[in-house]
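BUG: 3D viewer hangs when loading the predicted structure for this chain

Environment: internal workstation, default settings.
Expected: structure renders.
Actual: progress bar stalls at 90%.

Input used:
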Amino acid sequence: MADELLERLDSVQRPFTRALDLGCLDGRVGNALKARGIEVISADPGYRFAKAAGGVQCDEDRLPFADASFDLVVACGGLDQVNDLPGALLLIRRALRPDGLFLGAFTGAGSLPRLRSILLSAEERAVARLHPRIDVRSAGDLLARAGFALPVADGERVTIRYASFFRLLDDLRGAAATNLLADAAPPPTRPALARASEAFTAASDADGKTAETIEIIYLLGWAPAPGQPQPARRGSATASLAEALKRGKT
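Structure tokens produced before the viewer hung:
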């Protein structure tokens, strides 16, 4: 996610001077921004991450920064865990100067389909084991609702292969990607975990590893400013998409 966000940033043909690295984690994004000559303020909800980066400890939906403090905000990986995502996006937009850029990435609703299916079968009842996530369409709608200009949301699917069901669980716990709900259900029973492990192993490929899928959602939006390109008014088209598609088939 960090590499993709930085690649997208490099494709933008304009300079940035002051950035907020929101959800700084190990400082990878912040350090890369500094290497590009950008002043960086780091922030993370985790005390240790924030302290290591010399930044501010805060939740994404409770930003302590004044309006128009940055011309770039990059949020890598944490927005799927926010209590109030619409509020967080609104605060990010307000923290941007006019024509400032927001880039974000987080795991989406299409993640971990095999794990969800296996746990549902193993526990023989519907239990929330992973916190809710949003899909690409909802992400785009939230950007627009937060007041971003020229909002873009897109996604990609990444396949990760595991030799062990419990190694997958370890990774999810380490990433705080299990169930973060306050009223979380009790942990699965040992028999249920044993059934899930057997089903996971049964789904493995010839090399003994089982594939799991992570959906990553990427967000891009600009703080409104005079002179920005505007979408064409609805109904103002002068060419027919149907005719263009018809010509392409001949």
